[in-house]
Design goal:
Helices cover 56% and strands 3% of the residues. The protein is an all-alpha fold. The chain is globular. The protein binds acetyl coenzyme *A. The site of acetyl coenzyme *A has 19 residues, from helix 15.
């Protein structure tokens, strides 16, 4: 058996197709390129959940109302929860949301990462949480709840593009976790909590924070080759590179690089920061090709995510929470697809431990 279950097909889905050989992502019939060019996060949520949940006529308004409903739980963020790493604080607050398979609990789960992450970060900084404005688009309100003022159109568009880009991605580890729990008919909140827990790890959604640590470690473009060479010699992995499925460049990396360039053009990213990132990317790709000629290792979604979320004012230890704010749409849709059409997921293991002694 392969311990990472690669090549194992564990679900049929209409939700997304990850074409690893050609570097293409399709979300319910729409290519990622088209999706980022034409859709807001609310549109993608509609696309993903259509047929799996009874969607209201005005989904953006319903999502705004869900943000307000979820904000009532912010009072539970006591000092112990605020002191946790943000993703653990988010997990603790999301555990308060009730299980259920209807539209209201589903939208509250979608709203929760944006509402709770902003509130937790403000409380950690000694500031009052900012209540949602249900009339605003989700991405705009997320940044407003974080910073206390309505963001610029460029900032809101950049976060929206990020949320759209990461909304769904086949049977990744967190989505699989959601489907396993959904297959037991445990309910949506339980499925989403399992997914969030899987997302937290550095091999999945926890990588973009360490990408910035790497940029800080490198310091200046000219030092990138030597710094990265040393890291690889120590047996370290370069964060933001490599992917289980993609054997070519992750198409999401380009979607986000485009957003990062737009932010840089608007002055929200220092030109030196972008130049450093591009130098690190080039040096990393060169070295990975030299050191691992048999294993294509290309830039993944997390590399430019790091720059984008840094420029939008998110602290690096909260990047996974922002990832969750996008991916939660996919988790909910997959959980519903599994619960409605799938069977209990219960694979086999091969016992390789000792056997009881049999008397001669
Ligand atoms: N840097 C250096 N070497 C790497 C990297 C990397 N980023 N990624 C894989 N390798 C090497 C491994 O060391 C291994 O080498 P070996 O065969 O000599 O031991 C070989 O490539 C294959 O690695 P696997 O672990 O088998 O590949 P897997 O498909 O399990 O890993 C993963 C995929 C976890 C994403 C990996 O590439 C990695 O750790 N990347 C860095 C972390 C990261 O960026 N995570 C975010 C992924 S995107 C997402 O989940 C949203």
């Amino acid at each position: 058996m392969k311990s990472g279950l690669e090549d194992v097909v564990a679900a049929e889905t209409v939700l997304s197709d990850v074409d690893g050989a050609n570097g293409r992502l399709i979300v319910r019939g729409v290519s990622l390129d088209e999706l980022v060019a034409t859709s807001r996060y609310e549109d993608v949520l509609h696309l993903l959940c259509d047929g799996f949940l009874p969607l209201p006529d005005d989904l953006p308004a319903a999502l705004g109302a869900a943000r307000q409903a979820v904000f009532a739980h912010v009072v539970a963020a006591d000092a112990a929860i605020v002191a946790l790493p943000p993703v653990e604080g988010l997990r603790a607050l999301m555990a308060r949301l009730a299980d259920g398979d209807d539209i209201d609990p589903a939208l509250q789960l979608v709203a929760a990462p944006a509402v709770f992450t902003s509130a937790l970060l403000r409380l950690r900084g000694g500031m009052e949480p900012v209540a949602p404005d249900p009339a605003l688009p989700h991405a705009t309100d997320f940044l407003r709840m974080l910073g206390g003022t309505v963001p610029s159109p460029q900032q809101a568009a950049a976060l929206d593009r990020y949320l759209v880009t990461v909304a769904d991605h086949g049977l990744n580890a967190s989505t699989f976790a959601a489907r396993v729990v959904a297959s037991t008919q445990a309910g949506l909140a339980s499925a989403v909590l399992a997914a969030l827990s899987a997302l937290k790890g550095p091999l999945h959604g926890g990588a973009p924070g360490p990408v910035l640590d790497m940029l800080d470690g490198v310091g200046k473009p000219a030092d990138a080759p030597a710094w990265l060479d040393n890291a690889l010699a120590r047996g370290e992995r370069l964060m933001g590179f490599g992917h289980r499925i993609y054997r070519v460049r992750d198409p999401r990396a380009d979607a986000l690089k485009g957003a990062v360039r737009l932010l840089a053009a608007s002055g929200a990213i220092e030109p030196q920061r972008l130049a450093l990132a591009e130098a690190v990317e080039q040096a990393a790709l060169y070295l990975l090709r030299q050191k691992k000629p048999d294993r294509p290792l290309e830039t993944n979604v997390e590399f430019y995510t790091a720059l984008l979320l840094e420029a939008l004012g998110f602290p690096r230890d909260a990047f996974t929470c922002v990832f969750a704010a996008g991916r939660v749409g996919g988790w909910v849709a997959h959980a519903r697809e599994q619960a409605l059409g799938g069977r209990l997921i219960r694979p086999m293991s091969v016992y390789v431990g000792p056997r009881p002694q049999v008397a001669a």
